[in-house]
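#onboarding

Welcome to the new folks! Below is a worked example of what a typical request in this channel looks like: someone posts a single protein sequence, and someone else replies with the predicted structure as tokens. Don't worry about understanding the tokens yet, we'll cover that in week two.

Example request:
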Amino acid sequence: MSSLGPYFAVDALPVDPTVAGWRPLSDLLAPGPLEERVVSTREALGGTDVEERVAASTVALGLFSRLLSPAVGAAALGVPAPPVTLDATWWRPFETGPWPLAVEPHARAVDPGEMLTPLVERFATGFALSRTVLWGNATSALFGAVAALRSMHPQLAPSAATYASAVLARAPFAGTGDVVRGWFVRRSCCLYYRVPGGGYCGDCVLTQPQ
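Example response:
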């Protein structure tokens, strides 16, 4: 699915992944890798002028986008979703752009809520982030993939939107936002407006008429 864009692409895991710098996605549940990512993101956003939890929310949104987009792309193309799971997916350190991902052969895809729950808990307990914000980030990432396809591959958008709406109807995504006139509006804020000059995202609850 690399033809859909870098957020949708998933590599095949090499025979010896550690030689190429790949690390199990489950490593993110242990102290270290996420803290390093949040520190570098905070520095890029403005250093000490940015709260740690705001940087952590930005990292979470980027990671969730990367983990959920392949399933959205697969639904749009009408093919089986790649097995992006904590146990079968690997990542490697990077400076900018989307997280590089590779999956083990013969792994089985799981429900997106089941896949993300441990990461949501990790961000919540490690960076004092609200679970409401984090699940809002996850749903924003889901519909962000739909918006990307609508822009780049409009013929695929209806199938992608149908998939995303079905996920939104199930726990733990249910209640995190609404589809209004074909566009997703979340019920929480990712906190990016607290970055100096950051502004508001297009689906932010703070920008919607009350």
